[in-house]
Amino acid sequence: MKLRKWAIPALLLLTVLSGCKSGGNDLTPEPTPEPTAEDAIGAYLKDWQRLDYAGMYAMLTPDARAKLTAEQFAERYGKIYEGIKADKLAVEDVSPPPASPSSASPASTASAGPVVQKFQFSVSMDTIAGPVKFKHEGTARKTPDGEEQKWRIDWDSSMIFPEMKDGDKVRVQTLASERGEIVDRTGEGLAVNGTAPQLGIVPGKLGEDPAAVKAKVAAKLGITAADIDRKLGASWVKPELFVPIGIVDEADMDAFDNVPGVLFQQKKLRVYPLGEAAAHLTGYVGEINAEQLERLKDKGYKAGDVIGKAGLEQVLEDQLRGTDGVVVAIEDASGQRKSVLAEKAAVPGTSFQLTVDAGLQKTIYEEIKADASSAAAIEPRTGEVLALLSSPSYDPNAFARGLSAKQYAAWNDDPRHPFLNRFSKGYAPGSSFKIVTAALGLDAGTLDPDKAVEISGLKWTKDGSWGSYYVKRVHAVNPVDLSKALTYSDNIYFAQAALALGKDKFAEDAAKFGIGEAIPIVYPLAKSQLSNKGLKSEIQLADSGYGQGEVTMTSLHVALAFSAIVNGGNIAYPRLTLADDPDSPQVWKAAAMTPESADILKKDLVQAVASPEGVGHGAYIQGSSIAGKTGTAELKASKGTQGEENGWFVGFDANDPKLLLAVMVEDVSGRGGSTYVTPKVKRIFQQAMKG
């Protein structure tokens, strides 16, 4: 291939070469413009916005960098922002528009010496205590950097927050919320916020015989000297500091007069004025444990927080707890607060006023405290729960004050199980259930209240299909009508009444009393039941007719069932808290029985107590009209064997039904059965009538 030569006219070549050296046709690259103050300010604020602390630090003047290292700079910002839980950070340059060249100040024009330019910026962020916003003025300074001069930011602590100076700290302080209180219907405290003397030791003032002081304190508090040593050995303890050891009664404070190193402070704590009488109802609070903390950390709980551990304290924890507040403030090097950046006020927990009558609660407890028992009292017309008790009990104040291992072991190992909440459990209602069977038969027309039923002897078997099984009664009364059956608590009569209804009808109509449903109150109670998995046989149906078999009910549910007798057949809607809701229901179960059946049962129950021959006569009160039903529930593995018996009495004053009481006492075998319970109920009614 031949290379072609192109001839270029001389004039044209001259023109081209000339154009390469002139004006816009110059091919030499223009120098990069020197970064301006605005460039430096913008870069710094952009790095701040994205929390690029290394980038921010690189933009500082040499003098600013001399005050702290890059690691210290990043750590200071990081700790502050992490501590206040900074979020949604926004940093903006809000400097006023630059002045025109004719009016520019000497400070913003080029010169041989340092050049300074002021700028304004705004910062906003969300924090743990709420939003923080501020505007502040910064300084950009043109300073030597090697052989060049560059714009850098003249930083100090006020650029974090305007009020800050070097050496200041940002402190986050929790504002503890007040726990909501629980009071009775008159405002008397059941679980309230109070104070108690807290004994503490100042280690440096224990005197010449520290061991003797520790031994005396330990003996009085029911702990060991080793327990005290552990508290005094905490890492934060110093010789001059007050070290909390335990709570004491005010009456015991005098015992420590002139004991070296022992001082007292008032400590806020939960107080349970009724103590053992309402322990299972109120429950108690305690310090959150590791397992609870892990489970509830997303709800804002932290180590050292108090949390409901049992009873209403636990059930109503979310409402009682309240919400802690928080303050984000600047403190100087001495710990003095200089200014508040943000504050979120504490929100107290919700307080609850119960329908419970504290006086009645204490009266009932005094009667049943020696026995393993359960009791429920209601106002039968309104459904208001006046008392809920379980015995034996424990003192919830011991948990709030700091329970010793010795006391806990004593309760936990007690064979009577004081921690067991019996009013929340279902028990075989025994003969107290006979009013349900009677109502079902009356309303279905399978039971004629006036019909005299021939029953001979103390044992009865339907036919040979029952084998050796039989129903037993205590009194050989013959013939028997409904009134006599209730007066003498005749098991055979009510077994036959249940059989007359049949399994399906018995189960279907028993549901009208709410059996199988949760009682609609805030406190969780066991659901009552007619059977475990349906009525399987006639024998089970017969036993169910007099409250045995697999029938279980709580004492409160038994009381509610009896409220239908007071209310013309309707079961009152149970209420444990007082509320002003005008739309709240008045009836839980409408037409559990007909008004006619309710009237019949009321008259017969009055007779069952008034009659000297009646098993409930021990509850009779002259001048009153107590309507009631006893019940003895047998707990045995098989027919003919010896087992425990639980005794019941459920009743109300038919003339003035302000109080309906259901009491169950465990293990009354050999103590008179249900007749062991009736004198207790009588005294409770008498005391209540005085009020």
Automatic annotation (TrEMBL):
GO MF annotation list: penicillin binding; peptidoglycan L,D-transpeptidase activity
Keyword Membrane carried by entry: yes
PROSITE patterns in alphabetical order: PROKAR_LIPOPROTEIN
Biased composition (Low complexity): 101-111
Domain Penicillin-binding protein dimerisation: 176-338
Gene3D superfamilies on file: DD-peptidase/beta-lactamase superfamily, NTF2-like, domain 1, Penicillin-binding protein 2a (Domain 2), Penicillin-binding protein 2a, domain 3
SUPFAM superfamilies (UniProt xref): beta-lactamase/transpeptidase-like, NTF2-like, Penicillin binding protein dimerisation domain
Residue ranges constituting the NTF2-like N-terminal transpeptidase domain according to the UniProt record: 36-168
Family, as annotated: Belongs to the transpeptidase family.
Protein name (record): Penicillin-binding transpeptidase domain-containing protein
Record lineage: Bacteria, Bacillati, Bacillota, Bacilli, Bacillales
